Amino acid sequence: MSEEPASETPRAGLSRRGLLGLALGAGAAGVAVGAGAASAIALTRPDAASVADTHQFYGAHPAGITTDVQDHLHFAAFDVMEGASRQDLVELLQDWSYAAARMMLGLEVSATGAVGGSPEAPPADTGEALGLPASNLTITIGFGPTLFSTAEGVDRFGLASLAPGSLAALPPFLGDDLDPGHTGGDLCVQACADDPQVAVHAVRNLSRIAFGRARLRWSQLGYGRTSRTSAASKTPRNLFGFKDGTANILADDTAALDEHVWVSADDGPTWLAGGSYLVARKIAMKIETWDRVRLAEQERVTGRAKGTGAPLSGGDEFAAPDFAASGAAGLAIDPRSHVSRAHPANNGGIRMLRRGYNYVDGNTALGRLDAGLFFLGYVRSPDRFITVQRSVATDLMMEYVTTVGSGIWAVPPAPSEGSFVGAGLFS
Amino acid sequence: MSEEPASETPRAGLSRRGLLGLALGAGAAGVAVGAGAASAIALTRPDAASVADTHQFYGAHPAGITTDVQDHLHFAAFDVMEGASRQDLVELLQDWSYAAARMMLGLEVSATGAVGGSPEAPPADTGEALGLPASNLTITIGFGPTLFSTAEGVDRFGLASLAPGSLAALPPFLGDDLDPGHTGGDLCVQACADDPQVAVHAVRNLSRIAFGRARLRWSQLGYGRTSRTSAASKTPRNLFGFKDGTANILADDTAALDEHVWVSADDGPTWLAGGSYLVARKIAMKIETWDRVRLAEQERVTGRAKGTGAPLSGGDEFAAPDFAASGAAGLAIDPRSHVSRAHPANNGGIRMLRRGYNYVDGNTALGRLDAGLFFLGYVRSPDRFITVQRSVATDLMMEYVTTVGSGIWAVPPAPSEGSFVGAGLFS
Mean pLDDT, to the nearest integer, of A207-222? Predict the structure, then answer.
């Protein structure tokens, strides 16, 4: 992987490494990727499939937040390697942006791809997604608190002054038992697609592109979405068997998105306006214990009916919970239930956009399923998540869950065409 | 879970525990499950969905072998618990059969299901598949060598005399580095479905039903099928980026199935006739190493072109490899290539039916993807697999893979309607 500095000025959206490696064969004119070029590029897709299942990496808000929740997730956290320079970081983000934009169009990571390069060189694309449609792939990239930190008094990448004031590792919560191997990271990549092979291909190739500059810290696969972002979708169920995401913010509710999800220009910092904060929480469920709890207790803990998802105060799934309504024994909805502790009415009106996934990582040595909810939530500011989490951290459901992984990242707005993610940090 | 022995004679396909627990609410007439009852039962499906995506648990050959390969796998190995009796084992198989037959029809594990029982009892079904279609779920159950073994001189379940003579733990192969936590097991359950939540729901509920009688030993999720069993399917790609399964036995090739897959009455033992032997191999791929290998070398190792899947001796994907053809430097196909070592022509004509899955279990502590191929192969006798495996264990691909898990199970024929899997062992 050794290479001499090239003399030509790299294009805004592509590093020297990208020019010399990934884009080999793309020609001296480079490759224009973006909304305007989408249809032309799509014509080169090997299977000539439709582009109906593609999303744009470039634009205003980042893809993968309000996008209809796809069936599969591969989430990955990366650390920039010790010794990597600010320029290495810039080039990494350029190369990632170039490859992400192409993959979201159903293309290989570069024009040469898996089989178009020299037989005497490693393929530019790993090839396992050849022939597969774009599968609604979205790639969402975030910046963790440690990216802005100083190490032994040195500002790692000259970004300390640009750090969002509120971006810091999350405080400890009741019920946390965090595994450092599933916590934190300088950068994150959320790859969502309807085909798991497409999501895995994205993370694998971004990890490969990062070689020598950043390295995979941890990753998580998920499936069976637990959230909906469109009124047309049925609410899916989590591994406790309950509908999950009934009250989620929907993609077309722009007022709610502006109030609860997108960072505004007034919020600051400037480079983050139009972006959001992503909180990831790996929540292990005590499946076997839960499965032996009586139905009435499961519903008391949740605050909703298992079958319909309706709040225990009555109505259908989408009825507003009535926390004052009476039930057979006291209040219909226990004030310590999950729906009560999580509800905006009991958290100063705070809502978040959730797009979590169920996960199953096999089983533990005790023969119990190693499974749960990989929570992904988007909020306008970290303190909003912290407020709600402090509230639910004492709810009845905590007896049946343990949070084993955690992270927070600032997700910048989508780059403009030809630029790269986070460019506003380096201008 | 304590319960007194009931005085009534259990039905052939349902244990006392099943009658008292799972089928609570089904009425004194019990529940007839099977081919004849399928349409009637399907009418009770909560979403009234079509039954086009269902398969029958009962029949001749077991489901999940020649069935069109579904998108997702949850494979689980179980050990019968110390102290469990022969009768416990019979009842477990009865209960599993009852629940499996129902789930394959898109039904909950019993008539009461997740919300139809008493609020003061744990739900009979865990509920996360409520509202989901059957998703082509198949459940395939196998018996491992240890089920027939003697422990400290005692025939564990009185089955030693019925053991297939050739059923034994696989011998060590070059390239094995087996993790006991992913190897062996008294029983196995292969659950395949087009929705991962449906496959996971099946294993989870069978594990729950096994409580006190058998316990989960290990399990594996897979996705992105690597095999095809129908000529109409495109050949999918494994995580080395190559097409995988080009030469697989197809479901409609009954002559090949009879010759290579199904145990015949002459093969013996009688209870296994019409069944098969399942070999599972968890093959970890050195992804990052492979990704840095030049294309020509990847193709030499494989013996096929990465793009088309064609053998390096020429033709298209389905052309027969010509092991004598000349190439630029010697033979076109390296005799040590995977295609050469695995080919029936070089293994006495042996073929097997494969339905492997790609897996990604996150990453290692070194930041490498913990990923590979979960190989599932069906053969008429264990020695057939052993012959081919000894051949491929010295091929060029072994530099890039390590087998970390392994198991073999005898898969009995599908039970007749109203009976249970493996009933022939206990008659």
Answer: 96
Cα–Cα distance for residue pair B189/B411, rounded to 1 Å: 10
For residue A133, list chain B residues with Cβ-Cβ distance below 8 A. none
**d(Cα A41, Cα A56) in Å, to the nearest integer?**
12
Cα B271 → chain centroid? 19
**Stated length of chain A:** 427
CB contact under 8 A, A216 and B368: yes
Give this prediction's pTM.
0.90
The two three-digit tokens of residue A402, written as one number: 């343990």
* Contact flag B224-A293 (C-beta cutoff 8 Å): no
What is the rounded average pLDDT of the residues A50-58? Answer: 86
pLDDT band at residue A50 using 50, 70 and 90 as cut-offs: low
Are the beta carbons of B294 and A130 separated by less than 8 Å? no
Q: Which of residues 303-322 of B touch A (CB under 8 A)?
A: 305-307
Query: Which tokens hold the place of B282?
Result: 């968890």
**Rounded Cα–Cα distance for residues A259 and A279 (Å):** 17
From A243, which residue of chain B is nearest by alpha-carbon distance?
B128
Within an 8 Å CB–CB cutoff, is residue B365 touching chain A?
yes
Write the CA distances from A12 to A9, A16, A25, A95, A416, integer angstroms. 9, 10, 19, 10, 11
Q: Say if residues A16 and A91 touch (Cβ distance below 8 Å).
A: yes
Inter-chain contact B360–A305, Cβ cutoff 8 Å? Answer: no
Quickly count: other Cβ atoms within 10 Å of residue B102's Cβ: 23
Question: Distance (Å) from the C-alpha of residue A259 to the closest C-alpha of chain B?
Answer: 32
Contact state of A219 with B126 under an 8 Å Cβ cutoff: no
Question: What is the band of A228 on the pLDDT scale with cuts at 50, 70, 90?
Answer: confident
Which A residues in the span 106-135 are in contact with B, Cβ-Cβ below 8 Å?
114-115, 117-123, 125-131
Interval A5-20: pLDDT, tens: 333 333 444 454 443 3
Distances (CA, A) of B394 to B236, B261, B305, B342: 25, 25, 21, 10
Sort out which chain B residues have CB atoms less than 8 A from A215's CB and list them: 367
H or E element at residue A300:
helix A295-302
Distance from CA of A25 to the nearest CA of B (A): 16
pLDDT digits (tens, 9 = 90+) for B171-181: 999 999 999 99
Q: Residue B50 — very low, low, confident or very high, per pLDDT cuts 50/70/90?
A: low
- pLDDT value for B216: 96
Q: Which is nearest to A33 in space by CA: A17, A54, A53, A56?
A: A56
CA A322 to chain B, closest CA, distance in angstroms equals: 22
B84 with A202: CB under 8 angstroms?
A: no
Query: CB contact, 8 Å: A358 with chain B?
Result: yes
- Judged by a CB distance cut-off of 8 A, whether residue A180 touches chain B is no
Q: Return d(Cα B186, Cα B148) in angstroms, integer.
A: 9
Q: Identify the closest residue of chain B to A220 by CA–CA distance.
A: B362
Per-residue pLDDT of B369-405, as tens digits, reads 999 999 999 999 999 999 999 999 999 999 999 999 9
Q: Which of B369, B373, B374, B400 best probes binding to A when mutated, by most A CB atoms within 10 angstroms?
A: B369
Q: What does the pLDDT look like over B239-263, one tens digit per residue?
A: 999 999 888 999 999 999 999 999 9
Q: Sort out which chain A residues have CB atoms less than 8 A from B225's CB and list them.
A: none
User: CB atoms < 10 A from the CB of A295, how many?
Assistant: 23
H or E element in which residue A217 lies: strand A214-225
In this complex, is the C-beta atom of A369 within 8 Å of any C-beta atom belonging to chain B?
yes
Nearest chain A residue to B368 by CA distance is A216
Between CA B10 and CA B111 the distance in angstroms is 17
Rounded to whole angstroms, the Cα distance separating B374 from B359 reads 6
Nearest CA among A278, A242, A267 for reference residue A358: A242
